[in-house]
Amino acid sequence: MTQVHFIGGEKGGVGKSVVARLLAQFWIDRETRWTGFDADPSHGALLRYYDGFARSISVQRPRDLDSILEVASGESATPPEHVLVDLAAQSDRALHDWIDAGGVLDLAKDLGVGVLFWHVMDDGKDSVSLLDALFARYGERARYVVVLNRGRGEDFAMFHGSATESRAAALGARVIELPALHKPTMLLIDQLDKSFWAATQRASGDASSSLGMMDRQRVKVWLQRVYAGFQGIEQLA
Prior knowledge:
The protein is an alpha/beta fold and 237 residues long.
């Protein structure tokens, strides 16, 4: 079964594109077939780092969104195991309008395509409220992965022990704590414009184009911890 992963959270700055990049690298490292759609016109991280796997789309164009399900269903070619959609902040209305107008979740079910909504959160109240709204909209018709991004927050008490957490459990949502990478290391990765895989490699020649030994080691350990949280995602379809 092909799975479509919508990486959202609606708020800007919660780390959606980081999660999308991590999933992409996770599948590449495991030689898993996937296709990506980059719907973030202002950031475009998925397209920048994985241009051989991803294409740019606009959530404002229904025909662009149609192509997600066409790829996932194998309408014109052998479908990949995963379809990854990196959403921009404040793109939920256009996406939900497309899903509702086209009966996308019902069609996906008929086609044998799984749909997972990834909700990436910081530790603010808005992230919890937006997750409530997502659950209210789709309920048991979809599957969910809730990402508590410790790179964007340290205290998730507003989620833990809340009615929202109980609702997540009732809906079978997977809750993942995304560990924070050492902040100076993450800043250096962005400065050097590296993919997470490239950040673990020592560049030949110009030493200034690669991370130092300990920074590379920090990235390797971080990826191992992140990947451990991703294990079993296929079972949510």
